[in-house]
UniProtKB/TrEMBL annotation:
Lineage top rank: taxon: Bacteria
Record-given protein name: NADH:ubiquinone reductase (non-electrogenic)
UniProt KW Transmembrane keyword: no
Family listed: Belongs to the NADH dehydrogenase family.
Recorded coiled-coil stretches: none
Length: 313
């Protein structure tokens, strides 16, 4: 009697990161005959473009976050894993996890996105949260609403003024959206909710070190957005860099402004993917890859999304 042939083991693809790039990749590979493991440090996929609306009370967290397991519950080829990645052993072809375990792979895709960059001042993170996660959004929302509540009870004019001052650092899309919606809340929505303060007196600062807001967009759009913000009552400060942030406020150049709510939207850096692989990175920390998104010298490893920078000749 002939021996039964062993069932071939499907090619194992490990995808790290369930953001837009990682999620779309797994969706596109439906029916490809692969065994896929999707690893993320959170159990939900987040629609980041609408985070600012959670931060400013417009949307609930459940409206922009979806459980990863639910997204793939009909996909027998996909295993989702809640874990934090600590590194990659390229020789053994293993993804190393923070708990000391490892996941082997045949092909690896890193789609780990970007994180906040405080340009060497990481101590500012606790004072000026950025906006990348649901936790960030709820922290900003809590601080903003508490500032109004504390101002309602504050009798000292200077302290009340600081509580009613909101600073957004960085005038890219996130900073512009946040400054605009905070102004709308303060000046158009909340003003009838309090008895001892007029929220329309709130001061909203949008601080940008560069010469214009939305620098990645055409100048006509930057000018239009700036005019719209100013019409809402936002003070747009251009060519002004923040030199210090404290619990009492921000220092803009040499000028100190009392402020209890500060939001960071000034910069991002890529995840440590390049360091994990031991390959070159650009100034923002993005892994340098070829036009096929392959890591140099590693045909079995790809880097995609905000983690990758395609090397040019």
């Amino acid at each position: 009697m002939a021996e039964a042939e062993a069932t071939p083991v499907a090619h194992h693809l490990v995808v790290v990161g369930a953001g837009f790039a990682g999620l779309q990749l797994v969706r596109d590979l439906k029916g490809a005959g692969l065994r896929i493991t999707l690893i993320d440090q959170r159990n939900h996929h987040l629609f980041q473009p609408l985070l600012y609306q959670v931060a400013t009370t417009i949307l609930a967290t459940s409206e922009i976050a979806w459980p990863i397991r639910r997204l793939f519950r009909e996909r027998a080829d996909v295993t989702t894993l809640l874990a934090e990645v600590a590194g990659v052993d390229t020789e053994r072809r293993q993804v190393l996890l923070e708990d000391g375990s490892a996941i082997g792979y045949d092909t690896l895709v890193l789609a780990t996105g970007a994180r906040h960059s405080y340009f060497g001042r990481d101590e500012w993170a606790a004072l000026a949260p950025g906006l990348k996660t649901l936790e960030d959004a709820t922290t900003i929302r809590r601080r903003m609403l508490l500032a109004f509540e504390q101002a309602e009870r504050e009798t000292d004019p200077e302290k009340r003024r600081a509580l009613l001052t909101f600073a957004v650092i960085g005038a890219g899309p996130t900073g512009v959206e946040l400054a605009g919606i905070i102004a709308e809340l303060a000046k158009q929505i909340l003003w009838q909710e309090f008895r001892h303060i007029d929220t329309r007196d709130a001061r909203i600062l949008l601080i940008e070190a560069g010469p214009r807001i939305l620098a990645a967009f055409p100048e006509t759009l930057s000018d239009y957005a700036r005019a719209a913000l100013q019409k809402l009552g936002v003070e747009v400060l251009l060519g002004r860099a923040v030199s210090e942030i404290s619990a009492e406020g921000v220092t803009i150049g040499e000028e100190f402004v009392g402020c209890r709510t500060v939001v960071w939207a000034a910069g991002v850096a890529a995840s440590p993917a390049a360091a994990w692989l031991g390959i070159p990175a650009d100034r923002a920390g993005r892994a340098s890859v070829d036009a096929s998104l392959n890591a140099p010298g590693r045909p079995e490893i790809f880097v995609i999304g905000d983690t990758a920078a395609v090397a040019t000749a």
